[in-house]
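Our preliminary data section would be incomplete without showing what the modeling component actually yields. Below, a chain of 549 amino acids is followed by its predicted structure, encoded as C-alpha cells that our downstream tools consume directly.
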Amino acid sequence: MTSRESMQYDVVIVGAGPAGLSAAIRLKQLAAEAGREVTVCVLEKGSEVGAHILSGAVLDPKALNELIPDWQDKGSPLNVPVTENHHWLLTKAGKWAMPGWMLPPFMHNKGCYTLSLGNFCRWLAGQAEEYGVEIFPGFAAAEILYHDNGAVKGVATGDMGIARDGAHRPDYQPGIELHARYTFFAEGARGHLTKRLTDIFDLRKDSGPQVFGLGVKELWDIPTDKHKPGRVIHSQGWPLTDAWGGGFLYHQENGQVALGFVVALDYDNPYLSPFEEFQRWKTHPAIRAEIEGGKRVSYGARAINEGGWQAIPELVFPGGALIGCSAGFVNVPRIKGSHTAMKSGMLAAEAAFAAIGADCSADRLETYPKALRSSWIDKELRLVRNVQPAVARWGGMLGTLYAGFDMWLGQLGLSLPWTLPHHADHTRLKPKKDARPIVYPKADDVLTFDRLSSVFVSNTNHEENQPVHLTLKDAAVPTQINLPVYDGPEQHYCPAGVYEFVDGGDGHQKLQINAQNCVHCKTCDIKDPTQNINWVTPEGGGGPNYPNM
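Predicted structure:
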C-alpha cells in the first residue's frame, strides 16, 4: 500500500451542507469569543461547495438568525420572501385550493424565503472561510479511521487515479488522512459512512428505522408575465395512486421557478417510477399553466429523510457525532430540514468546543444529544411525529385527515400520547404478480422529458475509468430475485437511468450499471428489496454539478 499523508485538526466535518458549514462557523465563533484557537476543516465530495446540494427550497431563517444575526448585511442570497402560500389538492383535471385557516400556522411559511440552497451553502462557505475554516471541495471522505480502542480518529479521503480493474492510473494519488479530536458526519440523507457507523456502534438500537422520500426537481426559466417572486405552491393527490407524496413549485429570483415532486419510498408497487410520476404531474392543467412557455435549465434528484422524531438515532459515539440529515431532522409536513440541520450542527459545535476546552478527545459528546432534546428541534419534530406514519398507514385521504387532526391538537398543546412506528422502505414492495403494471406516457421534450436528457442538464460527470461505486453484495441477486420477483425495481425507481436489464446472451438478461449517470440520490441503497446494492463514494469531484439548485 502507498503511504498516506496525515493532517491533524481539532474538528473534521464531512460534508459542506447547511449542517456542516453551520457547525464550522459556530466552532470558530466560540473560539473567537474565548480568544482561543480551534482548527476546523470541512471535506466536500462535490467539485465545489453546492455542487451536490439539492432542495426546494423554502428556508426558515430561524437557525440563521441565531448563527449570523446580521446576515441581511452580509450579502446572503435570501432575497425573495414568501409572498403567497398555496396548498392544492389535485384531481386529474382539477384542483381544490385548501383555505389557509385549515393549515396549522407553522405551515404558512410566514417569514420564510425561497432560494437556491446550493447558493446558500456557497454563501455559508464564504462566511466560514472568513472565520478561518479550511474547506476542501473535490475530496470525498471514503474511509473511517479508528483509534486502537475503537473510537473514531478521523477519516481518509479516497485514492484518486484508481482504474476500473483496480490498477493505478498514471494520475494516481493516494488519499489523505485527516485526524481529529472529534469528527462530525454531515453527509446528508443515507450517507455511506454514516451507514457504517450506524452498524458499528448500533446507533439505532433505541430508535425506529429511518424512512425516506425521493425528491425529483427541475429548474425552469419562465416568461416574465408569469413570474411572481415569492409565490409558493404545494400539492398532493393526482397523479399518485400507488404511493403518497406531492409536488412543490416555488417562484424564485431571476425569472426562475423551482418545481419538483416527492414520492415516499415506502410504496409497494414495484412498477412505480418517481421520475415518471413527476413528469406526469407537470401535465396537470394547474401546474402546466405555471411553466408553459418556459424552458427547463436544470435537473436533479435526492433522497430525503422522512422519519422525523422517532427515527432520530443515537447521535454520538466515541470520537464523533451525526449532524443534519446524517441523523435526520426533516419536518415532513413543512417540507423543511435546513433550519433544523443548521441548529443541530451549532449544538454539536458547542458540545465539541466545551470538550476541547476541557482537553478531552475521542470521547462521547453527551452534551450534544441532551442539548438537542431540550431545543426547538425536538419540540418541532415531536409535534409532527405522527404525520408521515399516519399517511403511510391509512393512505392519502384518511392519513391526511388524521395528520391534520393530530397537528392541530399539538398546536393547541393537546398532543396525542402515542407515537406511530415506521417500517423500513425496502420491506414494502409487493411481488410483481400482486401489483398493477403502470404505463407512463412518452416524453414530449417540451414539458416532459426522459431520464437521459435529464441527467444531461444535471451536469453529471464521473471519471469512467474507475471502480463502479454502485456495488453489489451478490451479483446474482438482480437476475435471480429482483427481476423475476419484482420486475427489476431498480430500473424503475432510479431517476437517472443507472440500472438497465439488457440481453446477456443465451436468452438471459443481465443487469447493466451505468454508474456514470449517477446523481448520488441514494435511492438504490434505500429501496433495493434485498439490500444488495451498496452505494460507496466515487472519486472526489464526481457526480452532479448543480448550478442554482
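The chain is about 25% helix and 25% strand. The chain has a mean pLDDT of 96. Preliminary results of this kind motivate Aim 1 of the renewal.
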